[in-house]
Automatic annotation (TrEMBL), chains A, B:
<dbReference type="GO" id="GO:0000976">
    <property type="term" value="F:transcription cis-regulatory region binding"/>
</dbReference>
<keyword id="KW-0805">Transcription regulation</keyword>
<dbReference type="GO" id="GO:0003700">
    <property type="term" value="F:DNA-binding transcription factor activity"/>
</dbReference>
<dbReference type="GO" id="GO:0046677">
    <property type="term" value="P:response to antibiotic"/>
</dbReference>
<dbReference type="InterPro" id="IPR003012">
    <property type="entry name" value="Tet_transcr_reg_TetR"/>
</dbReference>
<dbReference type="GO" id="GO:0045892">
    <property type="term" value="P:negative regulation of DNA-templated transcription"/>
</dbReference>
<feature type="DNA-binding region" description="H-T-H motif">
    <location>
        <begin position="48"/>
        <end position="67"/>
    </location>
</feature>
<feature type="domain" description="HTH tetR-type">
    <location>
        <begin position="25"/>
        <end position="85"/>
    </location>
</feature>
<keyword id="KW-0804">Transcription</keyword>
<protein>
    <submittedName>
        <fullName>TetR family transcriptional regulator</fullName>
    </submittedName>
</protein>
<keyword id="KW-0678">Repressor</keyword>
<dbReference type="InterPro" id="IPR004111">
    <property type="entry name" value="Repressor_TetR_C"/>
</dbReference>
<dbReference type="InterPro" id="IPR001647">
    <property type="entry name" value="HTH_TetR"/>
</dbReference>
<dbReference type="InterPro" id="IPR050109">
    <property type="entry name" value="HTH-type_TetR-like_transc_reg"/>
</dbReference>
<dbReference type="InterPro" id="IPR009057">
    <property type="entry name" value="Homeodomain-like_sf"/>
</dbReference>
<keyword id="KW-0238">DNA-binding</keyword>
<dbReference type="InterPro" id="IPR036271">
    <property type="entry name" value="Tet_transcr_reg_TetR-rel_C_sf"/>
</dbReference>
Length: 245, 245
DNA sequence: TTCGCTTGCGAACGATGTTCGTGCCGATGT
DNA sequence: ACATCGGCACGAACATCGTTCGCAAGCGAA
């Protein structure tokens, strides 16, 4: 202790190079954590190297000592989010229920950082947490009696489906952010507009759409996600998966 | 005829303002068609306003008289591609087969312009061709006996699934383009690397993945797409859809 | 001490989407 | 036939973006 000069007010002509910031000395973790904060607060489009650097009280060039480029930062961000996913121990008798719960859990974790899905769809996940989750899913299904190849493909399709749905949700969220309205007003406006538009379509060329406008627009993101999830799980029955009903 | 002066070599001191270009006089259609050519030949990342303008022998500002902004151009591009989708007349007895064929057909049309999926996932399709396809899908399923709300949600999930899968394929294609290798070499290299990596994982923490490496990597894009498609269609059975088996 | 290496960072490069101002050209009104 | 006017083409510029370069400062090893 004591090797640093005690804090003393700077001479007024010695203008401080910056707002002192007093940040931790910059590390990959700090960069990732800051990036996640920006992503959650302002969305994918606001997530730039400059924005992250500014949040850390430095310039964009400083980041490149800890991160190869933006793509690598996005990879790290994605795995950082996947770290929040808790994987259960396989219980052979309840494989279908476990898979459904896990899929919903992943859906919720990703949705909590909605715009991360723009990243998830942009590259093949191979970080440690992605591996952990894949291993858990394989264990659940194979120990439950699903043939290994079917289980492998199922995991692939499930992850694709989850990422795509969250991605779609993030699109709506981005538009809502851009519109300035609050969430409720935005979606009722949005679907109202769509409904009005559908109803003005010529009935002779669009008999089905005009007749079933309400069905087309009914149901929010969550309900539709569960519907598709149950389709995928239900379809497994004919591929040698032990059915629980 | 003859109202144009016959072609004569320009005086050498009169440098032509550009390659004479002799383009058609610029229209929304010409812009969209050119954009599609760029997209197919060089991918989504190469599709810039400047690139399209250059291809048309003009500057980027000229496009904005015919197209509001890049997003609108992408919308137009997407519907232009959907125009290539042929929609069948509904045949009530074969609704499931018709839906499967139509989904595969859409998958193929989108795959032929692979990078268009980056657009498809980025906004809610509402162009005339998207409407036409939705109407056809509704007709097939409802006339086949599927309850209207289930049919509506099914269409939503199917379109999401198709777009997501083509999108994933476009990612691989983009990486392959960037790598400079040809398609075959690229995918065998790529999956070879993944397989090698999986096999080096510690067996105690990843018993499932190390044991089933081959299953995880087996099957190309098309086979997996059909697998997921059949999961979705098969899952419909429990939602009041008349089953054909 | 001196060397070398990592880290921080200001400045700059090339590229992007988009806007502004200015012409031109052809249709329209008289 | 001539004047006028509106839309289209387009060069230039602006604000951003990701990324690289070159240099200064700190620090551990020799």
């Amino acid at each position: 202790m004591g090797e640093q000069a005690q804090a003393v007010p700077l001479p007024p002509w010695r203008t401080p190079r910056k707002a002192p910031a007093a940040r931790q000395p910059l590390s990959q973790d700090a960069i990732v954590e800051t990036g996640l904060r920006v992503l959650d607060a302002e969305g994918f489009d606001a997530l730039s190297m400059r924005r992250v650097a500014q949040e850390l009280g430095t310039g964009p060039a400083s980041l490149y000592a800890h991160v190869a480029n933006k793509d690598e930062l996005l990879d790290l961000l994605y795995d950082r989010v996947l770290a929040e996913v808790e994987t259960p121990r396989a219980d052979p008798g309840r494989w279908r229920e476990q898979m459904r719960d896990l899929a919903l859990h992943i859906y919720e974790v990703l949705s909590a950082h909605a715009d991360i899905a723009r990243v998830a769809m942009a590259d093949i996940p191979s970080g440690p947490n992605a591996l952990r989750i894949t291993e858990a899913e394989l264990a659940i299904m194979i120990s439950g009696g699903v043939p290994p190849r079917i289980a492998s493909w199922m995991i692939d399709r499930l992850n694709l489906y989850i990422a795509a749905d969250v991605h779609e949700g993030a699109m709506y969220a981005a538009r809502q952010r851009a519109s300035g309205k609050d969430a409720g007003e935005f979606i009722s406006d949005f679907f109202g507009r769509f409904g009005d538009y559908y109803r003005t379509l010529p009935e002779d060329r669009f008999p089905m759409m005009t007749a079933h406008v309400d069905d087309l627009l009914e149901g929010g993101g969550r309900v539709r996600f569960e519907f598709g999830l149950d389709l995928l799980l239900g379809g497994l029955a004919r591929y040698g998966a032990p059915g629980d009903r």
